[in-house]
Structure to design on (203 residues):
């Protein structure tokens, strides 16, 4: 049987519900709170550990009801969520081998925390982000990430929105998926001798 490398997951659920008026993670989606989709996606032996980090008592209660580890806090910043979650993972899995973050901003915060724990990248921990923002190419070590076509994603989202407004069809109350192309960008946070590729053209 193949052994999996020690990889953990931090589910960031510390939003203050200001943009949507309520906690979107608790909104019903296909018959259950949306956050439960994250629970299902991370309920796998491929992960050595996972933890939800939140400011919400309701989110914490949901986690406990589903036996999902949760860390409840009252600190103000998104960086606090990254720090608390990654610190908790490192306590549970000291030999953590890899960290994948949902965006580059979080990954850059994780990079700082890993350095504070004395972890070397990529020798001790391999770190991946998502988005391929300019800063990902200039931090040290440079951040491996997934490059997405942001303009194309925005155009597709706008098309769907206009279609729903025009048709007012109840079928559009259901979730839909759109497959987008993406590209792996390998940098020094996962491969020590990866080439440097930073530039100011797209900044």
């Amino acid at each position: 049987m193949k052994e999996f490398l020690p990889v953990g997951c931090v589910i960031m659920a510390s939003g203050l519900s200001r943009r949507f008026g309520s906690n979107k993670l608790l909104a019903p989606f296909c018959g259950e709170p949306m956050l439960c989709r994250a629970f299902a996606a991370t309920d796998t032996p491929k992960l050595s550990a996972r933890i939800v980090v939140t400011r919400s008592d309701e989110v914490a209660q949901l986690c406990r009801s589903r036996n999902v580890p949760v860390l409840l806090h009252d600190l103000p910043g998104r960086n606090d969520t990254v720090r608390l979650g990654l610190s908790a993972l490192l306590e549970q899995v000291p030999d953590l081998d890899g960290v994948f973050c949902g965006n580059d901003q979080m990954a850059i915060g994780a990079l700082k925390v890993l350095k504070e724990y004395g972890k070397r990248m990529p020798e001790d921990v391999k770190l991946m982000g998502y988005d391929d923002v300019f800063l990902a190419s200039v931090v040290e070590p440079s951040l491996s990430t997934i490059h997405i076509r942001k303009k194309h994603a925005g155009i597709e989202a706008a098309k769907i929105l206009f279609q729903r407004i025009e048709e007012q069809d109840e079928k559009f109350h259901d979730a839909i998926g759109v497959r987008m192309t993406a590209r792996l960008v390998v940098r020094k946070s996962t491969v020590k001798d990866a080439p440097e590729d930073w530039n100011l053209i797209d900044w």
